[in-house]
Amino acid sequence: MAYGGYSYIDKNYRPKKTDFVTILWVKGESTFEMLSEALAAESSVGTWTKLATMNDFVWKKLRAHVFKTIKVSANSGYVYIAYPYDHFDSRNLLQILASIRGNIYGMKEIQELKILDWVMPEKFQKQFPGPKIGIKEIRKIIGTKSRPHVGTIVKPKVGLSAKEWADVAQKAFMGGLDMVKDDENLVNQTFCPWEERVIRTIEAADKAKDELGEGKIYVSNITDSIPKMIERIEFLDEHGWKQCMIDVYVMGIAGTEEILRELHKRKFLVHAHRAGHGAETRGPWGVGFNFWEKIYRLLGVSQLHTGTGVGKMEGSPLFIQKYGEIASKQKIKGFEPLFLNFKWAKNIKPMMPVASGGLHPGLVEGVTAIYGKDVTIMAGGGIHGHPKGTLYGAKAQRAAAEDVNKGIKLNKTQNIYLQEAIKKWGYVSGIEIKKRITSIKKLPIKKIAKGGLEALDKLN
Amino acid sequence: MAYGGYSYIDKNYRPKKTDFVTILWVKGESTFEMLSEALAAESSVGTWTKLATMNDFVWKKLRAHVFKTIKVSANSGYVYIAYPYDHFDSRNLLQILASIRGNIYGMKEIQELKILDWVMPEKFQKQFPGPKIGIKEIRKIIGTKSRPHVGTIVKPKVGLSAKEWADVAQKAFMGGLDMVKDDENLVNQTFCPWEERVIRTIEAADKAKDELGEGKIYVSNITDSIPKMIERIEFLDEHGWKQCMIDVYVMGIAGTEEILRELHKRKFLVHAHRAGHGAETRGPWGVGFNFWEKIYRLLGVSQLHTGTGVGKMEGSPLFIQKYGEIASKQKIKGFEPLFLNFKWAKNIKPMMPVASGGLHPGLVEGVTAIYGKDVTIMAGGGIHGHPKGTLYGAKAQRAAAEDVNKGIKLNKTQNIYLQEAIKKWGYVSGIEIKKRITSIKKLPIKKIAKGGLEALDKLN
User: What's the N-to-C CA distance of chain A in angstroms?
Assistant: First the structure.
């Protein structure tokens, strides 16, 4: 077996500590073996035809190795590829993306292609900052030890005036929410100018902090062209407010790295929204969300949306739990072929996972069953749609967080606003969620892997 | 039918000149009508539950309208959505992405979702620069009137030393190629330092220009973190070389816009590679490539990879022809539901489409049958894999471009090196390609649309 005159499959190869490793699902129009060859060739040193210009150094020192495969059918399966460190331009993340997540997606003979996970070596990680304001620092701002954080997105998404908007935020803070954020499609529209909204909302947060004696977080959405974002960061800093939100997936990696440099310099808490990621993290093409998540932690966001496992957004509890671990732990146990063993370098601090999308107070217990207590639980409609409105929706959500922290099951809560919320939207038991995760973990994953991506997706 | 208490379907609505319009393919777990509602709601002013905070202004002035649908089955079809201008933050491209290409991809009830095309209003386009060095200016640099441009990527992709690399480039230029470029995964590795490669290759280009009396293009890959890219742009400018390559999809939109600002200021020719785009432009999730292409022209790249229609990369001739038109024309005729009618604002100049991936001299006629003559045809293995090596591969490719320009069919060529290339790799007739496009265009597209994305994909 060979591609362009060379064979990249080498089952005796053991990945080195300094290698980059990827695991891919592939299905195509040629044999599984040939697809494996083509992926390794196109993402490293090869092409479709034999070259007069190929030489020994290139071949021996820089090529990729397919060191393991799991064949599912004659034309599909999982491919493990290792890349030598010197193949890459050291700290150049974009060049690495262009190699391992690049032209291979354009190959005609491929019908499905998904990078399920990847490992970057410690040597590489050490060059990056990681979160400067991580879980520990966020807890210090709010003043909590262990309870989950709760917050809201002001709704409707767009259309409220700055004053109306800040009034809703005020109620949310006063009701006991730790955090308020802009929605992803609100920045600086004519009906709600950004500066006015920010000033009014900072006032609301400060007032709530004074009255309640609790720290508050307001992350305004600064996402825009880079000069505009810098202007907004300066404005916030001048107003003594070192917190903001960026929408990392729509920005892309180069922009995210650039703006984080500015934000780290000024010691900002950086909330990361991920609008649009599903365009390449769902279905049989693209990457698993964990692929991007590792980059976002490496570059140093403080909080990252990682799904709910319950609510209106996709993602099974098991996947969401793994995303939670990748965000908040230093060492992650693999669950192959979906997740590889992974270790963060010591300098890359934990970031806070954020659950958001279709949540309401009755789901808080279920969310913490997935994530543990190091999580920020955001609700929009589930706060403002409360029968008594925003203030009481906030009280209900805060009560849910307090109850969960004390080990009280939410269907036994003494809080009347929480009781009302549960009456309207229902309740999901944490025990049920834990059982579901356990049952998925007990599945013979190797056997399921044999069913291909479709079978694995059913876990999702 | 309603979602979160409101209905967004309004078949009497006629999109305004200032509206943004998208067309989406959707398939899901609820009815097609409910999916249409949910997409419009989540991408504009709504959410999953009725809100106490919704008001008349928001509803009347800012909501999205589903103004047309093509139902394919009970739970799938095409949805046309119009968004009012004021919904958006004017020039903030990222906020628009977060709205129309944002959270909707995370909705649990959706099984497939693809934005097939979009229209941005003239009022919006006028705020952007478009290409500063476009087709006309590129032809002036090289000194051509009508013939297709030809170029090469030095191979193997990575591993040659700077000297070896520049020697290959030198042969390519001397053989008559107009352009040489770095491959996407070569930037500044230890075995081939960027500065040395650039200096040596500029020398090679200058020498070829002097000897042959023809302009030459060398686009080195500067893709990296933004400060590194700025350094490299300064370096090139100091060496009097106003040309470079950026890898736009791995960079992302914020980084691409930022670096183009710098490149426009210095009047650079900007070659845009698109490694990795297939992760979201293939399969049933994501966007059509035309979605991104319109942004890249808007922001102002000079040359953009848009596929081959032949060779190792995916994409049927019809799709590639449309991508070619979006790059090089001011007005594009729709082919619904795949492509909408579209008009560029006057200030947005044409950019040069680039065909690259598995090409060789025998395919040059086929490529121009798709694109016309305003195209740059790149070949890697198809040059360096020539039986006589790079210099003669280049001669063969240049001869193919000259023959095509004169209307000579390549299987009748008098050029012996081209004859050798065709003997090795074969020949695809332009007439055959044109017939294929015509036959696809004659298909009853409305009937095919009824077969859903899968049927449309078969055109691809």
Answer: 35
